[in-house]
Amino acid sequence: MADRPRIGIVGAGLAGLTAADHLRGGGFEVIVWEKSRDIAGRLATRRSRNGLAFDHGPVALAPRTATFRAFLDAAVADGRAARWPADRGSYVGLPDWRSLLRPLATDIDIRFGTEVAAITEAESGWSVALAGGACERVDWVVCTVPAPQAARLLAAVPPYDGAGRITESMDPCWTLMAAWDADTPAADIVDGAAPFETIHRSSAKPGRDATPVCWVGHATRAWSDANLERSRDEVADALLPHLAAQIGAEPETAIHVVAHRWRYARAHAPTGVMFYGLEDRLLVGGDWTSGGDADGAHAVGRAMAIAISWACADGAARA
Question: What is the pTM of this model?
Answer without folding.
Answer: 0.95
